[in-house]
Amino acid sequence: MGQRIHFVVDPQGWCCMGLIIFVWLYNTIFIPKVILFPHYEEGNISVVAVLCYYFCSLFCVASLFRASVADPGKLPENPKIPITEREYWELCNKCNMMRPKRSHHCSRCGHCVRRMDHHCPWINNCVGEDNHWLFLQLCFYTQILSSYTLILDFCHYYYFLPLKKENWDVFVFRHELALLRISAFMGLIILGGISRLFYTQLMGIFTDTTSIEKMSNCCEDISRPRKPWQQTFSEVFGTHWKILWFIPFRQRQPLRVPYHFANHV
Hints:
- It is an enzyme of class 2 (transferase).
- The chain crosses the membrane at residues 12-31, 43-65, 138-159, 179-199.
- Its main location: membrane.
- This is Palmitoyltransferase.
- The protein has 265 residues and is mainly alpha-helical.
- The protein has a domain at 22-72 and 132-159 and 167-216 and 226-246.
- 49% of the residues lie in helices and 7% in strands.
- The chain contains 7 helices and 6 strands, in the order ααββββββααααα.
- The chain has helices at 11-41, 47-69, 132-158, 171-174, 176-206, 211-216, 229-237; strands at residues 89-91, 98-100, 104-106, 111-113, 118-120, 125-127.
- The strands form 3 sheets. A two-stranded antiparallel sheet has the order 1-2.
- The radius of gyration is 22 Å and the shape is elongated.
- The model is unreliable at 219-223 and 258-265 (pLDDT under 50).
């Protein structure tokens, strides 16, 4: 999709990402088999509900894989610094390379990342200028998919009519209660954790501040011009078209950020 592939060799990150993929596969396989397809065949739900679940699942896994392999904004070894912007660059005291201000050195990845927010083991990658928008989409669609799954689990027992054509010889129906309890437990855990993370990310965009900058300047009030929230979101997603903020199947076009708005660390 026009983006450079970025692969981090980190066993801990592989385990975390593998756990996320397992949860996604579990719900994508068992929820349709136990709830969606049987209730659709008996007329309790419409085909729209089935398609919406698969669309949410597709967008969730697409943003996960793209956020994990997208280049977060890794600086090249010999960056070309425009003469007019040299005063906005600084020397990294860890890798001894020049970098734009608001960049940060990731000790896990071993290089500097432009406007780095944090290193996320759940995607096995840094969250930086070039993949922050994908990370936000991942948080957003994970919340929707988890909420949708919990609603289906609840409706299956307390709202939908009992199924008439259950095949008790099939594994998913013989262990239906256990499978849905596991699904509900995982949904609650993920929804609670991702909602808090998503809220933190949104507040960072509203204030035009990264997580690292918040920790570095937690006791310092930095006076700088405030940009409208539409502008900060457009810079993160690379477009002023709000509908495109929700689509992971595209290429981000970076918008130039005036340096006098920067919050330097």
